[in-house]
């Protein structure tokens, strides 16, 4: 404070930040034009879309298999059930989830940042995804 000036007013948040600070951290995603999230604790890695080998007679939501440091990883295209499943652009990524000892890739249109958010209807059901593969 400079002599003669009034002290600066403290800035108080317009909302109660305590519940948000305690909220679990999620990775923000876009899948099929919809905002989705996945718990950061289950994200093993985010990788660029590399070669994905189609699996004959696999359902439409199974995009195929890719490799991650020598491990085969099934890749799901959750957007295929929402009319997606088309070509991917340079912003698309494969979010590799760790589900127990298994790895599972999810093809996403975009990856945002890490956010503190409560679990809501935007959160992917990771255990449900594991049953798809």
Number of strands: 8
- What's the number of helices? 2
Identify the CATH homologous superfamily.
Answer: CheA-289, Domain 4
Mean pLDDT: 81
Poorly predicted ranges: 8-17
Distance between the first and last residues' Cα:
62 Å
Work out the count of structural domains.
1
CATH class call: Mainly Beta
Elements, N to C (H/E)? HEEEEEEEEH
Q: What characterizes the major β-sheet?
A: 5 strands, mixed
Backbone shape: globular
Strand order in space, largest sheet: 3-6-7-5-4
Structural class: mainly beta
User: What fraction, in percent, of the residue positions are helical?
Assistant: under 10%
Could you tell me the CATH topology label. OB fold (Dihydrolipoamide Acetyltransferase, E2P)
Name the beta content range: 35-45%
What is the CATH architecture annotation? Beta Barrel
Computed CA radius of gyration, to the nearest angstrom = 20 Å
Question: Could you explain how this protein is built, in words?
Answer:
- The protein is built from 2 helices and 8 strands, in the order αββββββββα.
- A hairpin with a 2-residue loop joins β4 and β5 (71-76).
- The longest helix has 7 residues, at 126-132.
- Helices cover 9% and strands 40% of the residues.
- The chain has a single domain, classed as CheA-289, Domain 4 (OB fold (Dihydrolipoamide Acetyltransferase, E2P), Beta Barrel).
- The protein has helices at residues 18-22, 126-132; strands spanning 25-31, 34-39, 43-48, 62-68, 71-76, 93-99, 102-108, 110-116.
- Strands 3-6-7-5-4 form a 5-stranded mixed β-sheet. Strands 2-1-8 form a 3-stranded antiparallel β-sheet.
- The protein has 133 residues and is mainly β.
- The relative contact order is 0.25.
- Residues 8-17 have low confidence and may be disordered.
